[in-house]
Request: fold
Amino acid sequence: MLRAVPNLRLFPLDRSVPSFPLVGHAPAFSRDPLRLVTRLAAEHGGMAPVQIGPLRGYVVSEPELVGEVFTSKMKHYTRRTRVYEAMRLFLGVGILTSEGDDWRVHRRIVQPAFHKKRLESFATDIVAITDQELKRWTGELDVSDAMMKLTLRIVSEVLLGTKTAGDAADIGRAVDDSQRYVEGIMSAVVPTPRWIPTKRNRRLARSLVVLDRVAYGIIDERRRSGERGDDVVSMLLEARYEDGSELAPERIRNELITLMAAGHETTSNALSWTLMRLSQHPDVARRLEAEVREVLGDRLPTFEDLPKLVYTRWVFDEAMRLHPPAWITGRLATETHELGGRTVTPGEMILLSPYATQRRADLWDNPEGFDPQRWEALSVRGALPPFTFYPFGGGTRKCVGEAFAYLEATLLLAMIAQRVRLELVPGHPVVAAPQITLGLKHGLRMHATRRSSTPTVAEAARSSA
Ligand code: HEM
Reply:
C-alpha cells in the first residue's frame, strides 16, 4: 500500500488550479480529474506539481519526460502505487501487477499468445462472434453495455479459449465491482480499510469468489480433459520455469483474470467513444462506411483486409487520442533522481496522463477537434514525436495486448459500419467517467438500424462536399 511520505521540503503547488491545505488538489481530483490533469498540463507545463491528500508528486505530460519515465529512468520507480496495490487484491500477482524478475519471466510466458501468427487465426473467430452479437443490436440499446459483453466474449473465447457464456454476466459484474473498488481507493483521501464491511468491500469479497470459481473452474476442466489448443490457458498449463517446474494454479488464475480484466474494458471503452464520435460527425461516418464498402463490399472482413482499412484505423486512433481508455497511470519514486530539471524524491508519485498530453494545444493542431484525417500526415514514420500519443503506455511495460486491441477494434468498427447505423438517442447525456479506464457515466444509449447497403467512396465524397 502506498504510504504517505513525510515531505518537509518546500513543495511548490500551482495556485491557479484550486488546491487546499492538507488535501491539496484532492477535491479537484475527485470532482473532475480530467479537468485537473489537463489544466495542470496547460497552466503549469509538462511537469506540474500535484498533491492529492497525503500523496505528492507531478503530473507529467511532456512527451520527452514521459519517455524517460517509461524507459531510461524506469529503474527509479516502482508501480506499487495505491491503485496498483488495490488491483492486486483482485488480480493477484500477475503481469500487470508484478515487477522485476517475476514480471520478466511471466511476461515471456504470456507474450507469445500475441504473436502475429496467432493474431491471424484470431481474426476469423473475432469476426464470427461479432457477426452473432451484432444481430442483437436493434432498436434502442446501451451500446457501451453491448460492447462490454462483446469484448468480454472475445477475450474469453478467442484469446483464452474458454466458453464463458454461462458465466459472462457474473464475470462482467465481478470485474466491474472489483474495478469500482479500486476507483474508491483512487479517489479517497484516506482509503477505508478492507475489513470494514462497506458496500464496496462486500462487493469486492463477492467478486473474488466469482473470479476464483471461474478461473479455477477453467484450469481444473482443462487439466481433467487433457485438451490443449492454441490458446492462453493451454500455454499457461504447458509453460515451465527454467528448473522444469509448472506454474502454480494460483499464478495461472492471476494471469487469466488479468487478461480478462485488462483486455476487455479498455477496448470496449475505446470503441464506445469511437461510436459516440461517429454519431456526432456524420461526414467521418460516411467516409468510414465508404472505405468499408470499397474494401469489403458485403463480405466479412479477414486478417488480410486490415492493412487496407486505413481510414478505419485513423478513426480509432483519433478517438483514442481524445478518449484514451488508460487515461492515467502512475509510478512511485523509490530513489532520488532528476526529472525535467526537478529533484524527485522517494515516495513522490509520477502521474502520466495520455489524456493530458494528447490534448495539449502546443503539441496538437485543433486539439479538441475530432479529425481522423490528421493521421494521414502523422502516420508517416517519424512525423509523430515519441510519446506525444501513448494510449498503450511505453517501454518494456507497454501493453502486451496492443496488437490484439487494434485487430479487434478494426474488425469490429468495419463490421459495425457495414451493418448498423447508430444514432445517439436525442438528449442522452454523454459524460466521461474517468475510472480505472475512461468510461461513459450514463452509458451510451443509441438507436440501431440495420443497413441495407453502404455508400461507395465516390458517393460519400459527393455527400460530404
Ligand atoms: C484499446 C485497448 C487497450 C488500451 C488502451 C490498453 C492500455 C494499456 C496501458 C496504458 C498499459 C500500461 C499501463 C502502465 O504502464 O501502467 C497496459 C498494460 C497491459 N495491458 Fe493493455 N490496453 C488495451 C488492451 C489490452 C488487451 C486487449 C489486453 C489483453 C488481452 C491487454 C492487456 C494488458 C496487460 C496484461 C498489461 C500489463 C503489461 C505489463 O505490464 O507487462 N490490454 N495496457
